[in-house]
Structures are given as C-alpha cells and as structure tokens.
Amino acid sequence: MIITILDVVISGLLLGGIYAVTAVGLSLQYGVARVLNIAHGEFIMLGAFITFSLYTKVGINPLISFAICGPVVFAVGFVLYRTLFTRLRTSSPTAGAFEGNSMLACFGLLFIIQNVAILIWGADIKGYSYLAFPVDFWGARFAANRLVTLGFALAICLVFYLFLANTRLGKAIRAAAQDPETAGLMGVRINQVLALCFGFGALMAGLGGALISMSYKIEPTMGLEYTMIALIVIVLGGLGSILGSFVGGLVLGLVGSIVTHIEPGLSLVAYYVIFMLLLLIKPTGILGK
Amino acid sequence: MEKKTSKKGIILGVILVILGALVPLFAPVYTVILLTSILMYMTIAVSWTLFSGPTGYISLASAAFFGAGIYTAAIVGMALPLPLVIVAGALASFCVALLVGALTLRLKGIYFVMFTFGLVELLLHFILWWEVTISGTTGRVVPPAGNAIVFYTMLIIFVILLLTVFFIRRSRYGLALLSIGENEEAASHAGVHVTALKVIVYAISALFMGAAGAAMATRWTYIDPKIAFNPLISFMPVLMAIFGGIRPLYGPIIGAAIFTYLEEFLLTRFPYHYMLIFGIIMVVAILYMPDGLIGLTQRVWKKISRRRYADT
Amino acid sequence: MPILEGRGVTRYFGGLAAVSDVDFWVETGEVLGLIGPNGAGKTTLFNLISAALAPKSGSIFFKGKEITGLKPYQICRMGLSRTFQTVKVFGNLSVMENVLLGAFFGGEGRIASADALEAATSALTFVGLSEAAATPARDLTLANQKRLEVARALATRPELLLLDEMMEGLNPTEVNRAMALVKQIQEKGITVVMIEHVMKAIMNVCGRIMVLHHGAKIAEGTPQEVSTHKTVIEVYFGERADASR
Questions:
Q1: What's the rounded Cα separation, in Å, for the pair A95 and B5?
Q2: Average pLDDT for residues C19-36, to the nearest whole number?
Q3: Number of Cβ atoms within 10 Å of the Cβ of A5
C-alpha cells in the first residue's frame, strides 16, 4: 500500500517536474512577453527530437545534449521574437490586438514547425533507450532515467529561480513582467528583455522536450497535448505567476499520476475537468491575483 | 454602413444558389464532390465568423464541433433517417458549445481561447477512452449516401446558415455583438446581457458546424476519433476569414473558395508540405493583411480612386 | 424616499481602501456633485453603484430595491445609467448605432424597432449630435464623444444618470455647453450625480455636494457649505489656506 502511494507520488512528481518546466516557459512567454504561444508544444517537440537525433545519430549523451538543444531552441525563440513578434507589436493598434495577432501567428507557427519536423524526422513514433535500468527506491522500483529526469527538472527550475531573483537580467525580467512601460523608463531595454524572455520560454520548452524524450516515446504530433497541459497549468497556477506555474505543474502531475493509476487514458480528461472547475470557482488560480 | 449586405449581393446569392441546385443534374461527379467540399468550408467559415467576427473572441474549437457532428452521425446513422441525423449532429455540437460558452464566456477572452484550443484533443481523448474502456469497439462504420444527396444536404445547410447570419447581422443582436467587440463594459452598461448573448450566438455557430459534420460523415465510410477530430479544421476558418475579411458577409465565403482551391492545388502538387505552406501563409497574412484580402483590395482601391480625384 | 441610497459601502484594492464605509443618498430630481482630490474613490464609487465592481461590504439601493450583486445590464434596465471617465464609445460604429444600442437594450422589456429609432433620434437631437448621426464614433472630437456617451445613456430611458468627469478636457465654451446640458437633463426629470473637477460647473449646477477623500466621506452639503468647510479646504489647498477664495 505504502509502496503504491510512493509509486504514484513519485511518478506524479516526475510528470509534474516536466509539466512545471514547460509551464514556466509558457508563463514567461505569456506573462512577460504577452504572447500566448500555442505553438509551445512544438518547441517541446523540437527539443525532444533534437535530443533524439543527437543520441541516436551522433551518440551524444542526452544529459549533455541539454547544452546543445537548449541554446538551439532558445535561438529559434529569440530570433522569432525579434523578427515576427516585434514587428507585430508595432503594427498592432492595441495591446489586445497584439495578443490576438501574436496568438494567431503562433497558430501558423504550429503548423510550420510540425510540418518541418515531419519532413526531417518522418511521422512515426520514435524513442530511444537511455538509463533505462531500474533503480530501487524505498522498495519501489523506478527507471533510472525517470529519476534523473525528475532531478534535472527540479534543478532547472531552481537555477531559473535563482537567476530571476539574483541577477540583473532576472530583475529586469521581473520588472518587465509587472509594468513594461515603467521598466522601459527605468532604463530596461524592453525589446531586448522581451525577446530574451520569449527565448528563455522556448529554452524551457526545449529542455522539457529533452527530458520527455528520455522517458517517453515521441512523435511530431506530440506537441498539441503538451501545449494544452501547459495552458491548464498556467491557469491553475495563476496567469502571470511564474512560481504559480511551477507549483501548478507539480500539482497537475500528481493529479495525472493518480488518475492514470485508477483509469489510464483519462488523464487529459481529468486535467480538463480541473480546468473547468477552476473556471467556475477561481479563475485567477492558486497564486494569481 | 459597411455591415449591410447590398441588394446586389443578395440577388447574386440567390442566383448562385439556384445554379448550385442544378449542378448535380449536369456536372460530372468530380465537380459535385468539389463543390460539396467548398460548401462545407464555406459553412464552417461563415459559422465561425458569425460569432468570432463581431465579438473578437477567437474560437479555436471549430474542429471539435465539426468532429462532434461527424461522430454523432456515425453513432446514430444506422438508426435514423438523414434529416434527423443532421439535427442530431447539430444538437450535439450546440450542447457542447453551450457548455464551453457558459464556462468561459463570463471571463476574459483569453480563457475562451485557451479552452477552445484544447477542446479538440479533449473530445478526441474522451471518445477514445470511452470506446476502449466502455463500448469496446474502436471506430464506426458509416452507411454511405449518394454524392448528390450529400451535396444537396450541404447546400440546404449552407443556405439556412446564410439566412440565419443575414438576419442576425441586421437585427439588434447583430448590433449588440458588434458593440461587445468594440467595448464589452460599455455594452453591458447599455443594457446588453453580454454573457447570454455571447453564449447563445456561439452555440448557434457551433450548431451549423455540427450539421456540416453530420452531413459530411458519409464521405468517410469508416470513422474513428482521430479521423473525426482534425486540428487543421480549427485553423481553416481563421485563415479563410483572413483571406476574405471579417466584416462583410461575403468575406469568409470568398475566403473559403480561395482556400478550397488552394488546398486542392497544394494536396496534389505538394502533399507533404501543405501544412507548412498554410502556416507560412497564415503568418504572412497576420503580418501584412490584418483586414484580410478584402481589406487589402479596399485599401488599394481607395488609394487609386483618391489619386484619380486629386487630378481635377 | 431617496432614489439612490448606499450604506456602509466599502471596496478594497489589495490592502488599500478605495471606498471606505461610505453612506450616501440621492434625492429624486436633484443634481448631486461628487468631488474630491484624485484617488479619492469617486469613480470607484460609481463603479460600485453601476456594478462594474462589487463592494466588499455594504449595500446599495435604487428606487427602494437592493441592487448590490446585480449585473450592470440589470441595473441599466432598472433605470440607472452612466458615462465613463475614459470615454467608451463604440469607435467603429456610427453615432446613430452607438445610441441605438442603448435604445434597444436599455429599457425594461422589449422595444419595437421604430420606437427605438425614435428614442435614439431624440437623444441625439437633445445632445446636439443629430447632424453627425452617420459619422463613425472614432472620428468625433473628444467633447462630442462625451456627448455621444450621454446620448447613449439617455437613450436607455434612465431615471438616474451618473456622469463621470463629463467636462474633463473641454475648453471653456464646451464646459458652458455641458453645464447647460446637465441643467436640461435635470429639467427632463432625471436625477443626476456628477463627478467633476471643474469647480465652476459643480458650484453652479449642483444643488448638493458630497466630498470624498481617501475613500471616506469628509463633507456633505450645499455648495456654499462645502466650499467653506474647514476639512475640504485643507484637503484641496493644504494647511496654508490663502485668503484669495
């Protein structure tokens, strides 16, 4: 009994860790850069496939390829913001129009990135095996790669938190999240910071994808589901709260693990039920204002 | 006032409908099938624009309502005559939309967008789970229907939709929808029951998508959740509205026609790239054509006509 | 019985009390002025009355019935309308369409199209905008947009009208016209509550004035009483009130 609970809880934290990393990324993009990136899952997918290719074609250890796929996906996000979204910001008459237009542009990106991925890697499900041996943990057995994934997910979030709290750039980001105009007046180079935020959001997505590829099978169409989950998580945690996304991710992961234990295949439905309850009771989320 | 449909437009529309009704009698089967597809896209585009056009609430759930119509038709298709199958599909989508609307339309628009975005996957997963766990069967077989019947069904649905949209647009509710899009708080302070209106109109738009889905279900002889719920269908009406413009009634109609030909062309020439090309078109369109192609031609025309008069 | 009454109305934003335990009443037919320094809570009070915001505590009564907890459209249909501090006209719709909306939806029960058109037309004539009926609202000057908002509110057939800084940004000629308009509205039998910073208007048009400061009511009375009230003077001019009043 205890073992089952432990099993479910750790699986939940594991799933939650991945959800947290990806949701924090989306929270950066929506909360600060004000872009509702519904192509977020595609960046996750890119991270997953880059890691896959690096491991299966070049033999690079996935844990090391973090250092490659992270910057690559970051660069894609950063460049996209500097070109596409900055242009949209200037051409949109209101902030609301920008949100709508950028969301639709991301919709387009969704199909572009997915198609490109299919062209490069094919449409089939792929997977690789890395650190797939079981490890005993207080009587319950877990695959080593899953535990490593959990550890890395938490580490990524911790590093990011420290970055936000202690570095100059981190403070600039927090200022921009609160009030972009005033931050700009205070000397923060807003366009640069927003582009960096969007890039960091993509980076988190890419790292999340790398983590996912270590433990699960991947396919080019996997992105949509992860985008949905990230959206639910940021609502659950409170729109605009990065800490909330972290907490929300873990919570949702636990829920998913419990539901999968009782009735596998219903986890997405369960997430949506939570989404619906949130909308009915407290749309501002756990940590939202 | 630009939102009024002109008399010329109405007469043209009636002529086209009559011509359309004659098509299956004279044209080859391929044309009938193509025209059915065009009508389907037009129905989805116009339904989508009915709500999302004036209010500015962007629904990404069209695929969910269309799919719900398809699936309902697959479930009841054996047991009911065609008209009732269509009604069933329409009702199923109507109810789903009522639920979605009641949950999200009381809140800020962003929740609506997020919720509708995931609705396709949600319905897909739910039905998959249901079939695997409860009913034990995967997918369904649909009784086939003749091409002419499907065409006429789609035509009737489209005509009813056009009439509905026409009358809503010129009524006080059309005005209220526009005011919601302009400034929701002011509209509510002027006496408009904003939430109720949004929910009802959204459900009406979903109704027609469901009807279209039910009509088209017979196109596929076998349906499973993955076939019925195709995210690309959520993408299309947005693209079509951008092509054709949102404000005029004929906007999404023209957009749908452009889109259908584009899709035919791309599917044959670049079968592995058409998602990519559509995505690029979408991004380019958002960047350079916020008013849609119609808006673009209007602006070009204004520039030309201004030049003309400046010479005098 | 006062047409509008509030008891203990309170609203917080975060830890700050924007409106703090305010009691107020408005007599039928009067023009009540609501003044106070910036941030005093005036617009927040309007928002609480029109249900744009919900109070943390307290109750508001209109025509004897409690309206706390109702939605804005319900309050409008009961006969209470307002204008906004930042003008909220429907920019892409024509002037006539803006007002028609109020005519169609602002009253109790369903109205025939012909009657709505008539109500809208007479509202436009009343504020002096009938020539501009076909103009898109975004092409109007600010002063005219404010008048358009008044017309839209009037088309909802209100018994009580809340005017929020109607005269802000107007030049002296426009201010005089606006003052005359308020007097005409009162002559039609509509009760008016107006938030204003333009003292000339408040003193001349209002029969009674209420003063808010930091969310609390600090004075109430006739223009004469309020302008000589010690606390009001301190609040507006600081401790060193000079003799040139």
A1: 31
A2: 94
A3: 12
- Whole-angstrom distance, CA of residue C159 vs CA of residue C65: 14
Q: Cα separation of C24 and A172, whole Å? A: 45
Q: Where residue B169 sits, what CATH number does that domain have? A: 1.10.3470
How close is the nearest chain C Cα to the Cα of B108, in Å? 14
B109–chain A nearest CA distance, Å: 10
DSSP A84: I
Domain of residue B256 covers 7-310
In a mutagenesis test of the C interface, which of B168, B175, B189 is the best target, namely the one with the most C β-carbons within 10 Å? B189
Residue with structure tokens 């109790």?
A: C108
C93–B179 CB contact, under 8 Å: yes
Averaged over C125-146, what is the pLDDT?
A: 94
User: What's this model's pTM, rounded to 2 decimal places?
Assistant: 0.91
Residue B1 counted as domain residue: no
Per-residue pLDDT of B236-250, as tens digits, reads 898 888 777 788 888
Together in a domain, C215 and C235? yes
Q: How far does A20 lie from chain B, in Å, by closest CA?
A: 18
In chain B, whose CA is at the least distance from the CA of A268? B122
Chain B residues in contact with C84 (beta carbon < 8 A): 185-186
What does residue B222 show for φ and ψ, rounded to 5 degrees?
-130, 135
Pick from C241, C232, C237: which is nearest to C211 by CA? C232
Q: Above 0.95 for ipTM, yes or no?
A: no
3-state secondary structure of C197: coil
CB-based contact A88 B235, cutoff 8 Å? no
Are A105 and B282 in contact (CB < 8 Å)?
yes
Residue B264 is encoded by which pair of tokens?
A: 């035919």
Q: Which domain holds residue C208?
A: 1-79+159-245
Contact B189 C72 (CB under 8 A): yes
CATH code of the domain in which C170 resides: 3.40.50.300
Q: Which domains does chain A have, with CATH numbers?
A: 2-281 (1.10.3470)
Q: Is B149 on the interface with A (CB under 8 A)?
A: no
Q: Which of residues 28-67 of C touch B (CB under 8 A)?
A: 50, 52
H helix count then E strand count, chain A: 12, 2
The DSSP annotation for C220-244 comes to: EE-HHHHHT-HHHHHHHH-SS--S-
Count the domains in chain C: 2
Residues C2-16: pLDDT tens digits?
999 999 999 998 888
Domain boundary among C157, C184, C214: C157
